[in-house]
Amino acid sequence: MRIEQFRYGADNLGYLIFSGNFAVAIDPGAVDEMTRFAQDRNIRISRVTNTHLHPDHTCGNEQMLEKTDAVFLDCRKFSDNESIFLEDEVLTVITTPGHTRNDVCFAGDDFLVTGDTLFNATVGNCFSKDLDGFYFSLKKVMALPGTTKIFAGHDYVKESVEIAQAIDPDTPDILRYLENYDPDRVFSFLEDELRVNPFLRFNDKTMIQKLEQRRFPCATEIQRFKSLMQAF
């Protein structure tokens, strides 16, 4: 199974995930580029779906469906661990409510398309107001192998690294993280997110000390996550 990233708008990232001659388009804002890529490789875009329903992620749906014979898969109707079959390979849906109530991620062999749930070096805004749900969604992601490649819905890397450095100037490996940034193929490894991303470091002693200094609740894991989201 392969993944191809497409940039559109100011910083949005959409994806074609394909195996053999079949592909699913995720957040297909770069319609012309995606269809051209598929045609050049004799790939049929058979399904179109989204990580969530914010307009900057769904803006290409209608045009993509018009240009292909693809079937639309409504992300609101996915079940956790649902399978999308591409030839003899499986793309797995992971439901991750938090940013909105209907966010999902898509897991391949060694990668995860995270939309606005998990960005490279930060996390999405909790527009759902359900920080408990967001915490449990991120815990699902954090349980994946550290070698999992994280492909997010936006390229916010430089801004997010600056924020991470401001929160904790001694963040481990932050300079190496930025050195590995490639605007032509934006991704990180989960193991690096666990070291660098301040909103996943809720068990880190340094982050706990910062919360204690600000007198935020930090007795439990979920309290620390919620406090980090509120403090920073």
UniProtKB/TrEMBL annotation:
DNA damage listed as a keyword: no
Top-level taxon in the UniProt lineage: Bacteria
InterPro entries (UniProt xref): Glyoxalase_II_hydrolase, HAGH_C, Metallo-B-lactamas, RibonucZ/Hydroxyglut_hydro
EC assignment: 3.1.2.6
Keyword Zinc recorded: yes
GO MF assignments: hydroxyacylglutathione hydrolase activity; metal ion binding
Pathway(s) annotated for this protein in UniProt: Secondary metabolite metabolism; methylglyoxal degradation; (R)-lactate from methylglyoxal: step 2/2
Location of the Metallo-beta-lactamase domain: 11-154
Keyword list, A-Z: Hydrolase, Metal-binding, Zinc
Pfam families reported for this sequence: HAGH_C (PF16123), Lactamase_B (PF00753)
Cross-referenced SUPFAM superfamilies: Metallo-hydrolase/oxidoreductase (SSF56281)
Protein name: hydroxyacylglutathione hydrolase
Protein's organism: Desulfotignum phosphitoxidans DSM 13687
Lineage: Bacteria, Pseudomonadati, Thermodesulfobacteriota, Desulfobacteria, Desulfobacterales
Gene this chain is encoded by: gloB
